[in-house]
Hints:
By secondary structure, the chain is α+β, with helices and mostly antiparallel strands. Helices cover 23% and strands 19% of the residues. It contains 10 helices and 11 strands. It has helices at 8-22, 72-90, 131-136, 176-189, 234-240, 266-270, 274-281, 317-320, 365-375, 405-408; strands at 59-67, 124-129, 167-173, 194-205, 255-264, 305-306, 309-310, 332-333, 336-342, 348-358, 382-392. The strands form 2 sheets. Strands 1, 2, 3, 4, 5, 8, 9, 10 and 11 form a 9-stranded antiparallel β-sheet that branches. A two-stranded antiparallel sheet has the order 6-7. Helix 2 (72-90) runs antiparallel to helix 4 (176-189). The longest helix has 19 residues, at 72-90.
Amino acid sequence: MSPWHLSRRRLFGLAGAGAALAGAGAAAGYGLSGAPAADGVVAFRGEHQAGIVTPAQDRLHFVALDLTSTDRAAVADLLRRWTAAAERMTSGRETAEGGAIPANRYAAPADTGEALGLPAASLTLTFGVGPGFFDKLGIADRRPPQLAGLPRFQGDRLDPARSGGDLCIQACADDPQVAVHAVRNLVRDGFGVTEVRWSQLGFGRTSSTSTGQATPRNLFGFKDGTNNLKAEEPDLLAQHVWVGDEGPDWLRGGSYLVARRIRMHIETWDRSGLDEQEQIIGRDKGEGAPLTGTAEFDLADLAASGPSGPVIPDDSHIRLASAEANGGARMLRRGYNFVDGTDGRGHLDAGLFFVAFVRDPLTQYVPMQRRLARSDALSEYLEHNGSAVFAVPPGLSEGDDHWGRALLA
């Protein structure tokens, strides 16, 4: 193999890099619209990290890692290397120079190779830090009070092997192999400093983060995330998603990521009548309209009453999850369906990998989930068995800025 050989993926990347540079003056691609360029490349640098307001891609590979080193210099060096690799992969290139086919055939390839020939596929890589990151590195004074382990909610059956983590990487793409390749190579580069705590594959986004996307359906067959915040609502994002002056310097312009693995008891749900399902959700199954309306985006009339009581039941999901029921709090949801085989007892291990970005998990997510866990009729069909929260720093400026630089400075 000639050292001048270029794979299709590297050719895509070289073209994508030029497109990204050309668009840098227009708010770094995803910063305003979140839309990938025509070649499927989402700008890696900008005011906010990609993978938050970016139009939700179809596939997810999420990984939570633990630090195995308390050496701050070693961790900072890893985050620098991760940033360089992430920027290359999101532009459609291989992980590092030399790639999957090194000139020295006896050397381990710098890239594992399973994405050779594939385009960037709108790949985004989003980085966050968990509560334990600060304690292990002796910087507990830099941890904001909002970054605390989520409390146990009524009905939780949390598996420690699916919860927590010192760091997280969210890889989203329109090709599952591109997302898996990205996580695999970053995990590989972290040997000796980090190790995988848990990971989750997802398919079929369960929310829309742009007005240009249709509302998808979850595994219960209902449209999910109709009232989700959108990239085209900057004022609402500033109010509910982006950390402001109340946060530490290293986090301003960033967000908090809440992850919950929610198993759905789909076999039980599938034996329920349509009317019961719609009463539990508070929407009709076909159009996705609230029970007080006829179209999906009709405002739900939570005050409407009928002969049997409220038209939208008091224990319905959309009532209890609404901004009106939660002091006006909203969030940017970015979840995915999952099917992870069976549980060994004849039931699918399937459900929703819930991901949400919020400005303050303690005032936005926690009160809402307490209310849902206590009163939501849908809870009978759900089992929360994984949970984590991470602080997601703002985006990177041009030059040598890298993940964790401001935090570890």
